Amino acid sequence: MQRVGFTTTIPLEVIVAAGKTPVDLNNFFIGGQHAPRFVEDAEMAGFPRNTCGWIKGIFTAVMESGIREMVAVTEGDCSYTKALMELLSLEGVTVIPFAYPHGRDRETLRFEIEKLMRHFSVEWESVYQAKERLDLIRHKVREIDRLTWEQNVVSGRENHYFQVATSDMNSAPDTFEAEVDAFLREARCRTPFKDELRLAYIGVPPIFDDLYTFLESQGGRVVFNETQRQFAMPYDLNDLVEQYRSYTYPYDIFHRLSDIIPEAGKRRVDGVIHYVQSFCFRQIEDLIIRRKLPFPILTLEGDKPTRLDARTKIRIEGFLEMLAERQGPETGNERS
Ligand code: SF4
Questions:
Q1: How far is the CA of 54 from the centre of ligand 1 (A)?
Q2: What's the pLDDT score for residue 332?
């Protein structure tokens, strides 16, 4: 089956309805064995050092994967995407633009989805059949999320992995569903985590590969992964246009906050990790998040796909110690 790459979550149903194999280029980059080299190769090809590591990784991912067709999200994601599109089209890749409308206008979004459908020659009927298939898997991944914060039997890293993978269903929905089923069977038999600090993770997924394990080694478990949960389409909506209108990631920060604040409250988080990527425009949103979120916040910045550096580890340790002190001994909920 022909593979179609994309730069961030798009209406996956259209790609699946067209009988193509979806490839989230972010997952291809960060999930492979050679993520640090991907960034270096892009720099060797001429990318400036002060360009986002994800963009550099996506460029090499396209070049190495042999993908010849991709959807690039030109509005609602990344200010670098247009230049990346131009560069890849010069390399002979067919690039289809897709835009999430500013202001979440329903008719404009419907028009964008139908434009994508026309390109892939699919009709609404087959798109809704694909949605039905994908929703079955999303429903199971939603259960993994519930087991994370309500039953406390899933780690923050596992929660991250399964939700982030829903953006392309690991390029093989049936295989991914079997993996989800096996995980659910195992997780339901686990003994719940105890004595941890409960954390929210907000922002783009981390480029660090050991963030969750380090947090857990220090007694902090992520029980809410904001963006990753959004990739899994958490609202269970029947209307496809409404599904991608409610999806918060590509829209303004206030729409994201309207999801973050109640979810973090419901999941009883003690503190928030806000991850920002070096050279990303979204760093500016940290100013708004700090004014609006009623939780202690630690902002972490990552650049390349490496392990956490010593300074970041020290900052995390200090933040978790502060949260543990706020809890006090009477809660019986000290760090393990
Ligand atoms: S982290 Fe920011 S700059 Fe990098 S790809 Fe994502 S939106 Fe673009």
A1: 6
A2: 39
